[in-house]
Write the structure tokens for this entry.
Amino acid sequence: METKKLQKFSEYSMGTYLLCPKKYRYIYIEKLFKKQKRKVNEYFIFGNIIHLTCKEFYQKRAEDRSIENLYNIFRESWKRSGIRAFFKSREEEKELGEKGLYMLSNFYNSFGQKVPYLTEHYMENIFKDYIFFGRVDRIDLSADGTLQIVDYKTNKYYDVGEDNEERARKTMQLKFYAYLLNSLKSNVTSASYYYFAEDKFDTVEFNQESANYLREWFDEIINDIRYDKTFERKFGTHCNFCDFYKLCHETENNSDDNNNINIENEKLFK
Ligand code: SF4
């Protein structure tokens, strides 16, 4: 089978579909990000700086992995990133910078002495007639040879409570990475989000039974995407952060939405 022709899915594309099929359609079928640039703000850049800092920290020799050097890497990445242009005042910049230092102190306490097995590790594999691919922030190796995945989160921790559907969507990224890594002959026993600000782990454990369940679940999502004819909107607080908010709401009451969407796009993205 020629891999080039196979449909590719990332945790982001599948997570987007679970969040809102319409948004999935805008990104992956209408390909609107090719016509309009993705919005970037200071928090997006901030997240990248924190990720980069954690990665560069482990590139230092063991004796140089001090908290002062972690802060220095952060300050250097901050200067290089161009984030300064997004602040209205020096105070605003200082506030976010200090938050970054606080988050990195938490990181240092939890991970400073623990060298990861792999960081920013790219993976891809063929399943049936599609490809899964992704880059995982961090993989730790236990003495018994099993692996633990960690995904760094710079956003705020939130508890989904009893909402099972939201819990499944929220942890999809971890399950996707574990499933993909296991398919490459590894043994992943857990995967966690690490929330810097709260110094909190949100963990999913895996066993043989969950591996079988994940295979079926991912197959189901792929089929839902492939056979979806309407790509319905799913409204929620996430709409406030959606790049397509304007387009989506302008076309909301249009029954001939799907036919007219290209005309709308032309108007908006000229
Ligand atoms: S605004 Fe909301 S409903 Fe519309 S595409 Fe974005 S996420 Fe979906």
